[in-house]
Amino acid sequence: MAATLSTLDFVTRLAVGVGCGALIGVERQWRARMAGLRTNALVAAGATLFVLYSASVLDPGSTTRVASYVVSGIGFLGGGVILRDGASVRGLNTAATLWCSAAVGVLAASGHLLFALIGTLGVLAVHLTLRPAGRLLDRVPQDDPDVEGVRASIYLVCERKSETQLRALLLQAVTGVGLTPTGLRARREDEHTTKLRATVAVAGDPARAMEQLITRLSLEPGVRDLHWHLTEERQDPEPPEALT
Q1: A GO CC term (predicted)?
Q2: Please, what sign has the CA dihedral across residues 40, 44, 45, 50?
Q3: How many C-beta atoms surround the C-beta of residue 176 within 10 A?
Q4: Is the confidence at residue 147, as pLDDT, over 50?
Q5: Which of 24, 35, 7 has the alpha carbon at shortest distance from 107?
Q6: What is the DSSP letter of 226?
Q7: Residues 41 and 111 in one domain
Q8: CA separation, residue 242 to residues 158, 188, 197 (Å)
């Protein structure tokens, strides 16, 4: 790279860097992520400007040093968009995308305009094509010895008149959050209430799914009590008692 840059080179490289970051940001904005169009464009613009500055000075080794500083700085920026949500972590993809936006900015500032465009298309391809592939992989049954045999039991006490509706809703809600029902037991406690017990197979951490399930069912009229717990050992469901 030449020690100095012409104004045309500066504008061209900056435009390519910002444009590549904006292309990545369009996909993020469309997905309603925290870092969207402007954030990715600004990250790419900042990385491009830092490296363009180093390219305009007389020290030929400064470009490499500044590029390494950009990589470190983006790490702190990416850490700011990573959030902990209960037992899960959100924002990892957003942080990685910001890192990639900075990388295409560095490529553009270094004069590798075609490489910057190819890198941008690669980032977009990851988001657009690997997202559905990841969802398909999530649906594949996993034979994990750490979670094999783990079951969860959901207990629901409801009014007798709401029993039929809540029984159907319980099974629908269980499958709706991705759990596999393995049994359902109904027992009439007295002439006014019925106790429902559903057992489900658990794969992985069930906390989030159970939270959604309990929140959904607790809003239904006629529910008097609702709770759940995990069973670490594989158990055969108890035979249902005859309804009276």
Answers
A1: plasma membrane
A2: positive
A3: 13
A4: no
A5: 24
A6: E
A7: yes
A8: 17, 9, 14
